[in-house]
Write a structure and sequence with these properties.
Keywords: Cytoplasm, Cytoskeleton, Guanine-nucleotide releasing factor, Metal-binding, Phosphoprotein, Repeat, Signal, Zinc, Zinc-finger. By secondary structure, this protein is α+β, with helices and mostly antiparallel strands. Helices cover 27% and strands 26% of the residues. The strands form 4 sheets. It has a 7-stranded antiparallel beta sheet with strand order 4-3-2-1-7-6-5. A 7-stranded antiparallel beta sheet has the order 15-14-13-12-18-17-16, with helices on one face. Strands 8-9 form a two-stranded antiparallel sheet.
């Protein structure tokens, strides 16, 4: 045994072992590079048209189908994540895809919504495009969130190598929750179904009083509150519809960074000069007087005890209504949709009691709100787990 150990630990053997390990690692790296090249070529051939996906240094990381939320519906999209970009496509036929966009990871941000009701979603923000995606489950969403976040971080660090003037702190700041200047990035559009009223004046949308999206912040607004146009950086200063709030904020930013004499500056659309005239014209909007108390808490407030969709009935024989509820400061607020800025009604919960309805049909999803043993409301959640969390939130709100 001593002779064997001496033989194994001899310098010649150790040097030879190091060479073998180095050769094996090099062979593994070569095989990985070959597999990566084949995958990039496969993706490139699967795209309609002529697109150069194979690039020096580009590495394939992840692929999968996610639902993209458009204005009205959810649409399936195929995503390919690389170490420098996120490719999103539309499936067409026979395993082929139509390229929608190749989004650089530079300056990209990814986050999940604060509302628990949207636990399968993640939000992608980039300079060119921003949107909401929905996975089939929360674990799948978390996998994508982790993969994209890690890729963004590694890409930012790699850019420092090629840009010595950039510090690590500057790269990290791009990926943190710092607010980008208004108009510098494409906003995430709020889906039409998540707002029943203008997010500025609270006028109710109808078939004739339609929804419009602010191209600066993504909010849903009415025609009267979005009659201005402004040149936005991410659109290369092309005039686009903006809401009143963003129009005023963009003007302030322009005054703070006033162009020097002789420079082109920001060109406004002629419609912006007529905004005051347009506001004076009688409109067909349906606007109700809403008490101030119903405007104190918006449906998407982040500091609530509980929020989400529930079915509500005023009695066992009454029809169910699908509404958004928020419990905050021991008050129950009711909304028609999850992004409405004013509540339909508010109800203090002190003095109420909550009981769960247990029968074979309800599957532990139904619970009642009682006042002095009189039935006030009946609620139904999507599943037993959600119902349990809502019951706990209601019970907490009924106690001083």
């Amino acid at each position: 045994m001593p002779l064997l150990s001496t033989y194994i630990l001899s310098p010649c053997i150790l040097d030879a072992l190091a060479v073998v390990i180095e050769v094996a690692n090099h062979a593994n790296d070569t095989m990985k590079q070959g597999d990566n090249f084949q995958k990039l070529m496969q993706i490139q051939y699967s795209l309609n048209g002529h697109h150069e996906i194979v690039q020096p240094g580009r590495v394939f990381l992840k692929e999968g189908t996610l639902m993209k939320l458009s204005r009205k519906v959810m649409q399936p999209r195929m995503f390919f994540l690389f170490n420098d970009a996120l490719l999103y496509t539309t499936p067409v036929q026979s395993g082929m895809y139509k390229l929608n966009n190749m989004l650089s990871l530079a300056g990209m941000k990814v986050r999940k919504p604060t509302q628990e009701a949207y636990q399968n979603e993640l939000k992608i923000e980039s300079v060119e495009r921003s949107f909401i995606l929905s996975a089939s489950s929360a674990p799948e969403r978390d996998e994508w969130l982790e993969a994209i976040s890690r890729s963004i971080e590694e890409y930012a660090k790699k850019r420092i190598t090629f840009c010595p003037s950039r510090s690590l702190d500057e790269a990290d700041s791009e990926n943190k929750d710092e607010v980008s200047p208004l108009g510098s990035k494409a906003p995430i559009w709020i889906p039409d179904t998540r707002a029943t009223m203008c997010m500025i004046c609270t006028s109710e949308f109808t078939l004739t009083w339609r929804r419009h999206h602010c191209r600066a912040c993504g909010k849903i607004v009415c025609q009267a509150c979005s009659s201005n146009k402004y040149g936005l950086d991410y659109l290369k200063n092309q005039p686009a519809r903006v809401c009143e709030h963003c129009y005023q904020e963009l003007q302030k930013l322009d005054h703070q960074h006033a162009p020097k004499i002789g420079s082109p500056g920001n060109h406004k659309s002629p419609s912006s000069t007529l905004s005051s005239v347009l506001h004076s014209i009688p409109s067909g909007r349906k606007q109700k007087k809403i008490p101030a108390a119903l405007k104190e808490v918006s449906a998407n407030t982040e500091d609530s005890s509980m929020s989400g969709y529930l079915y509500r009935s005023k009695g066992n024989k009454k029809p169910w209504k699908h509404l958004w509820f928020v419990i905050k400061n021991k008050v129950l607020y009711t909304y028609a949709a999850s992004e409405d800025v004013a509540a339909l009604e508010s109800q203090p919960l002190l003095g109420f009691t909550v009981t769960q309805v247990k029968d074979e049909n309800s599957e532990s999803r139904v619970f009642q709100l009682l006042h002095k043993n009189m039935l006030f409301y009946v609620f139904k959640a999507d599943d037993a787990h959600s119902a349990h969390k809502w019951i706990e939130a209601f019970q907490e709100g009924t106690i001083l």
